[in-house]
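Human:
Care to share another protein and its fold?

Assistant:
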Amino acid sequence: MKNFNDSIKYIYDYYGPEVETKKFYEELEELRQAVRNDDRENIKEEIADVYITTVHMMNKYNISEEEIQRLIEFKIGRQKHRMLTEKIEKLKGKLTDKNKLKLRVYIENLKNNK
């Protein structure tokens, strides 16, 4: 992606932050329309445009790929935790007291091994 990002930065530098910020909002709206129309080919094209303009926003606000990667990993982990919590809550009503205790111990062990 390095070569892509260099080219994307070149485009951003050429047109400037004001034009590219406006373009970012336009591309988001075009993606919304493509999704609303359930048009797979157009969705792919608009995702590419949104990706490009997202990199422009990263350049504008001096946000690194590493910062984004860390946030993605954090958000995925948080969502997986929420999903596990939801599953556990659904199961709790179906468990015997003995199994509830085992589950509590298991969860505590998971928390301690983070």
Remarks:
- The longest helix spans residues 65-92.
- The two ends are 31 Å apart (CA to CA).
- Helices lie at 2-15, 17-36, 40-60, 65-92, 97-112.
